[in-house]
Amino acid sequence: MHDTWRFMGRFARYVAAAILLAAGVNAGFAADWPARPITLMVPFNAGGSLDRMARGLAPYLSKELGQPVTVVNRPGAGGQVGTTWFLQQPDDGYTLLVTAATPYLPTNILVTGAKYTLDDFAFVNAQWSDYTMLAVHKDKPYKTLKDLIDAVKANPGRLSTGVTFGSAGQISTMMMLEALGIPADGVRIVTYDGGGPLRTALAGGHLDFSVVQGEGSETIRDFIRPLAVFRESRAKEWDAPPVNEALKWAGVTIPVLSGSIRALASSASFKKKDPQAFDKLTAAYKRALENKEFQSWLAANKIDGDWLGPDKTSAILNSNFEILKKHRQLLKK
Length: 333
Known about the structure:
By secondary structure, the protein is an alpha/beta fold. The protein contains 12 helices and 10 strands.
């Protein structure tokens, strides 16, 4: 009996020690994070809006976290290649995702069979929400949206438009063509893997028109002419009417979809495993956006610096997911 009690006593001490050791390891992990450099992974080409946002954020986030922060690009399949790679990395918070959480993540999930869901991500903040606009090269003859549509109808399948698969620009383009009775093959659709290459093609006159990001197209302002903005009201940045005002002559209206919502995320498992480290990341991001020097850089580069935080960001993205779910058939045309 005494031996049994001695054994049970030793066993209880071992269990208590194990519990304390585990608690200490977890606490130490949170206290030490980050202990080495962090990578911001952008699942699109360099030069696009997401890439510019990530590269602008990196040095200021580095300052707040006390570790180097670098940016890498892994483009492909409308962001799906890089996003899949991101989720395959260790869930230790040293690889973070800067992505167009709307519309690319929902499109990958709803249309192209991605093996992930929104629940696999822990969104930290939606920093930059943009609208879209329909633009042509400045040397094209089209002065109004009616001019362009008349040309499309007079030359079936000959005029070209650029899209990034799964983007708000693609969805808006398809909705507009459908409302005007123009079949999907009524224009020549050229697909690009990212906003940067698409804008380069538009600015170079290689496309007849495209629906592109409004604020994100500031870098090609001198080369394009906007014909309509996909907003309920005019945009201060561009001299063009709202799309439904520009379509009045045709007697049609289309839904106005939000453009890209660009956000920073970790894996959901990182947040679950170490909520204290996730909170540290969140606080560092917020402080970075409050940095006066960073605010000046953002303003000069026409990039938003909004702070919504994890809860509001997640609520907005879930709401947008449901909206895009209703329009997913347009992406299969």
